[in-house]
Amino acid sequence: MLIETARDRGEWFCAEVAVGELCEAGEFERALTVLEPFVAVGWPFAVRESASILVRLGRIEEGLALVRPDAAGLESAFDCRWFAGALVEAGRVDEAIGVLTPHLGEPWILESLVDLTRGENCDARVLELLAPCAERALGGAADCRCSAAGGRRECRHQPSEVLVKYSRVLERMGRADEAIRRLGPVLPAVPGVAWRYAELLADQGRFEQLRELATGEHAGLALNQYAKALEEQGELREAEAVLHEALATDAEYTRRRLMAFLARQGRLDEVVDVGRPTYEDAEGNLLHEAIDLLIRAGSPERALELVDGLGAAYAEAHADVLGYTRLRLLAKAGRYAEGIAEARALSEREPGQWDTTLAWLLDLDGRPDEALDLLRSSTEREAHRAIAQILTRHGHYAEAVAVIPTVSAQREAWDRR
Q: What is the pTM of this model?
């Protein structure tokens, strides 16, 4: 059905999933057939996927030809990135590096270089390309404006970014000690790299150095890594103490980590209490973080108590979001009838705005026909998607596909809006 839908309706997402399934089953030629109409109109994702499949089939030159940039394309970092990826798949890593080199002034291309070459036995070459920017950063330069690796454009790397990449290549070469030795002295000039330095120390089991880092001037970036290392070592009390201490220097990030830590220990009341100072804030609000942790811990009832305990002013200002959240929690708790009653009340106040949610609850309550009747008469914009979802859940796949407007119909509707 996926293949038929992709072919008959021009649905790219159906084609994408179908191609993935076919490739997993080893049916590469059929996958290419599914992609053909999309390649014909130049859809870039289809072109790239076709190139990848052709390379895997051993039709390397044919695949590379699909994504090989012309003279103008060689000026495009995006075009070169996709061509380099295909070259790596074809085992031509040196050529891929050559294609990327003129664009290494772009931070995301440097990231691509590091990612694409992982495990390809060319780390010495990658390290050499990183060296010009890394040496400037290690020397304390505030920024880097070199012509990176002979590239066409001025380098735009920040010292901390390039040093993180440099240290990762060193680490995968088995030279983590060297990465630690090189990063340590530069921390005063490039404090933003302290988190990576802490990560290296933890990975190498250097806990005393990590403790010193986490209790010094770089505590804000290193304490959380130290706490993670302690937890992994089973030192739970010490890890918790470190996280509580870190709240003073990095409250928002550490509070989130402490809540997750407590949830892993099953201490759900404390999860709620730690997040409580933020629940009615405009910024850094961790209400939904707490709700998700409670749901994952199998305690939707506790999450409902949290929502119902919010202040009246906040609840009124965020009525729509909290209304939906409450309905979701009632469903998680299996209280479908109560959720349906609340959704009906909301729908009476705001006709047409709660139809898909009400239908979802009706279906969960074992009343799919009522849910479908409601949606078929609904004016809610996404009602057709909800209909398709319900039909799919009950095994009516062909009907579900028929409900969804074609790509051209969706485009026309968008233009009208």
A: 0.80
